[in-house]
Amino acid sequence: MSLLSTIRNRFDTALRQLTSDTAPMLELIRPVQDPRFGDFQANCAMSLSRHLSLPPREVAARIVAGLRIDDLCETPEIAGPGFINLRLRDSYIASRMTAIAGDERLGVEPTERPRHVVVDFSSPNVAKPMHVGHLRSTVIGDAICRTLKFAGHRVTSDNHVGDWGTQFGMIIYGYRHFVNPAAWQDDPVGELARLYKLVNQLSDYHDNLARYPGLAEAVNTAEQQLQRLQHNPDPDPGKAQKLASQARRQRESAAEALAAAESVIDSVRSRTELLALAESHPAIARLARDETARLHGGDTGNQNLWNEFLPACLSALQRIYDRLGVRFDITLGESYYNGMLPEVVESLKRQELATISEGAVCVFVDGNKAPFMIQKSDGAFTYATTDLATIRYRTETLQAAEILYVVDKRQSEHFQLLFRTAQKWGYDRLQLQHVSFGTVMGKDGKPYKTRAGDTVGLESLIDEAISRARVIVDENDDRRDVPLLSPTERARVAEIVGIGGIKYADLHHNRDSDYVFDWDRMLATTGDTAAYMQYAYARICGIFRRLSLDRRSFRAGDPVLITGPEERALALQLLQFDFAIDSVLSDYRPHLLTAWLFETADKFSKFYDRCSVQDAESAELRRSRLILCDFMARALHTGLALLGIETAEVM
Ligand code: ARG
Fold first, then answer.
1. Closest ligand 1 atom to the C-alpha of 383?
2. 160 in ligand 1 pocket by Cβ < 6 Å?
3. pLDDT at position 450
4. I need a labelling partner for 24 at 20 to 30 A (CA). Which of 334, 358, 362, 594 fits?
5. Those residues with Cβ within 8 angstroms of residue 181's Cβ, 6 or more apart along the chain or in another chain
6. Could you say which of 3.40.50.9100, 3.40.640.10, 3.40.50.620, 2.40.110.10 is the CATH number of the domain covering 116-164+322-441?
């Protein structure tokens, strides 16, 4: 049983004498960061005092009186308004550490209540190049899958690729009119990306051209309004100022919209051949939509093209997943559900959950203004319909108990509507969670782009990470009197440092927040980075190597001794790996694991500074410290592995 559960159990017995509902009280017992307050703190007296109408300190005293915990802790202290502070006995920490030292799972017991969880992540829209925005879902989703599995759950990772959307109409149109056969032979995915971009650009051109007069008019109106206010201000000066600044803002945003349209138009006008294409394809946007509709309607020509495009797109994706070390149990894209969509709509209509609104079939969800549209007025099914069919499949065929969607937070409204609709539709015992995340930003505070303003392709991002890491790896190894790594080994280490760096930088932020992409910080060998952890791991491996000791032979049997505060702090921290895993899984936040790793690495470095391993006072102490070192190395290795990050023994 985990350290925390052991303590909670003891409290449970004591609390039962005061209340029958102990579970929420037990939640209030947690590890504390500040050693002045001991190792654990129980905050249940305050909330219990309200139920019992007794002063909290009195309640705390009663809890402590009923508590049998002497074998684990020093005498509990009651502090402040009624906190109960617990300090573990050194002997108890030592004996627990000794007990798990040889454990493959580092003391983490598999869950008693395994669930089958489907994790829907990565899920890019294919036929567009995969970019940095897709990285977050891929990296976070993969870390969640690995952690769930380690905890003993059954996991099905599912890449719900967007392989049926409007982008296919665009590339079909592009292919029919603009394909460069040599480029298509040579690099089909590159050519498809070019076609996609081209069709998009030409449609945008016409779209902006059509909107231009209206936008110009809006600037005019805003300007006139501003002048009116200047000539004829409101008699109340405060109000006049407010109105004027409002009008200025309006003029500014109208001018910005106009400038944006101008820049789209200019980007085509400035290139004669592009302008000629644009002029000979004035209805391109509509025609591309028609191609999508024909594809969905079963048109053979379009389906053949789709069948030709798709494998190329998927294998380009696969190349990236292979480099990232990410794998999926299934890749069932949107197209897989196509045949099921009519029955989804029928079923929702039969249950009178869907109604016709302005020709479209919609589900109205209480408290939400926007309806959930499951069939458009032209008969087309939507992203929503597919997601409903997917829920049905995952529940009925895959038998999932829980589904996680690791998707950008901009889609949160979609998922709210989806979950409510699914619930009403009858999937009310299924756990559904949108594991949302923020945007990857550049140092300029805007979404991360290349200097030319394009989204950053994933392939080139990975290449750059590895080549930057290689510089660091070379420098490190060259500094040694005798370098340890061959060129192949250096390349391998650069790969794990580069890719580990990208992943860790993403994972160590709370997923809801936007994070700034910063190469230097990401690959630094000090601070809260993958490289720091990876080098710490290699350094510990080096200790054993220099002593010509087999790490495995140190794992079990000998006792761990606690002889000072650094040893104590490290051992206590290592004993709480299971708590870190539980916290990650309680709301699917991998940064709680990186935080644990960083904290652990910090405690280790303090321990290693103060406590000599090689020249320990006695053979027993030396062995005990080596056990801690080995456990630490495995904690780093396992913790990083749960985040999808590799380690190397020599680097
Ligand atoms: N393909 C979608 C996009 O790129 C994400 C899909 C997420 N998963 C889902 N079941 N809706 O925006």
1. 11
2. yes
3. 67
4. 594
5. none
6. 3.40.50.620
